[in-house]
Every structure is written in C-alpha cells, then in structure tokens.
Amino acid sequence: MRRARRGCPALGKQICAVCCGTKRLVEIQCPSDCPWLASAREHPPAVAVRQQQRDFGVMLEGMRDFSRRQSQLFVLVTTFLVRYESPELQRPVDDDVADAFGALASTYETASRGLIYEHRPASLTAAQLMNALKPVLAEAGKGAGTPFERDVVTVLRRVAESVAKLRAIETGNPRAFLDLLGRVIQAKDDHAGQEAVASPDEPRLIVP
C-alpha cells in the first residue's frame, strides 16, 4: 500500500502520488490552482508528450485540405462533442458519433437535391446526439446558403471517417475518438487560458 504524501486540495486529504497522477481531472476535479496539477502541466512525462503529439496528429489529419470555414466547422462540431451531455445520461460512444454524423450528412445531401427527408440514426443515443447538433449548425450557417451546407457535409463525413480510422486502431476502447477529443480540447482550453492571461485584450481562435 502506497503512502499518502500529497495534499489534495480537491479532496481535502492526503493521497498517494499514483492516485494523484492517474485520477487527476478524471475522477478528481482538480482546482486550477492545484500545485500538483500545475507541475504536471509544466513538466509532463514523456508518455504524455507522445500521447499529445499523436492526438494532435490525428486532428490535423482530420482537417487536411480544409478551407478556413471547414476548419472552423470541424472545431465547432468536435468541441460540441466534448461538451455534449446526453439527456438520458447515456454517454455516447464512437459508433454513435459516426452514426449521427453520417445520418446528418445524408440529410444535408438530400436537402441539396431539393428533397426534404431526414435520415435517422440507428440508435436512440445517436439520434439524440444528432438532434442536439442540428440547431448548432443551423445557427452557425444562418444566411450562408448552399456553400455552407456543402462544407457541413464535408466536415461531418470527415469526422465519421476519423472515428472509423481510430476505432480500427484502438479496438478495445469504444470511446477512443471521444477520449482523444477530450484531451485535445482540454489542452486547447488550457493554452487559450494562458494566452488570455498574457494578452487579455487579444481574442484568438486556436485551431489544433
């Protein structure tokens, strides 16, 4: 049994270093001023650096050849996925993402041909995800017309493609893509927060 040597400000008690390292921001909601959290971010272990490099590589591959608007849409929908909360408290898995995004892309494609038909995902969780994403895209595309809809289809298809590629590599994790997004968005938010402190009057869009 490992000795509890680290004072945890979130739990209000001493915990061991292994628990601190493995449960940080996963099971333990660490405050931003936690010294152990700050130290880990300033000096991440080599394995974490490799993981971050791999994660950003997957994101960059997913955004290959995108226009500026397509890149912004990609960031919009992936950030939406990270922050999405299912109304049934049923966390979606990667297959739900591929199902929802594929159905929504097909709906946009059908509409571009002058037909109003909503393609539906196979699972309830995917359907709820799709229904939550539709108003987000509708708001983003107000007044943009058909070119915007074509960009949406391209981005939705690319996300579904990225899900399939990663699932083929990490077969044992049904949330491999969603977990990756969580790590990337967290890193992006951390960086954005640091930039805001350094230059509070200069808003920036940080694209991985």
Please, could you describe this protein's structure?
With 208 residues, this protein is mostly helical. The protein folds into two domains: 1-43, no CATH class; 46-198, no CATH class. The protein contains eight helices and two strands; from the N terminus they run E-E-H-H-H-H-H-H-H-H. It has a two-stranded antiparallel ribbon. A hairpin with a 4-residue loop joins strand 1 and strand 2. It is elongated. It starts with 5 loop residues before the first strand and ends in a 10-residue tail after the last helix.
Features:
mainly alpha, 208 residues, 63% helix, 8 helices, disordered C terminus, elongated, two-stranded antiparallel ribbon
Low-confidence stretches: 193-208
Mean pLDDT score = 85
Helix content: 55-70%
The proportion of residues in beta strands is: under 5%
| DSSP summary, beta strand count | 2
How many discrete domains? 2
The arrangement of helices and strands along the chain is EEHHHHHHHH
Overall, the morphology is: elongated
Q: What is the terminal-to-terminal distance?
A: 40 Å
From the alpha carbons, calculate the radius of gyration and give it in angstroms: 20 Å
Structural class: mainly alpha
Write a brief structural summary:
With 208 residues, this protein is mainly α. It is 63% helix and 3% strand.
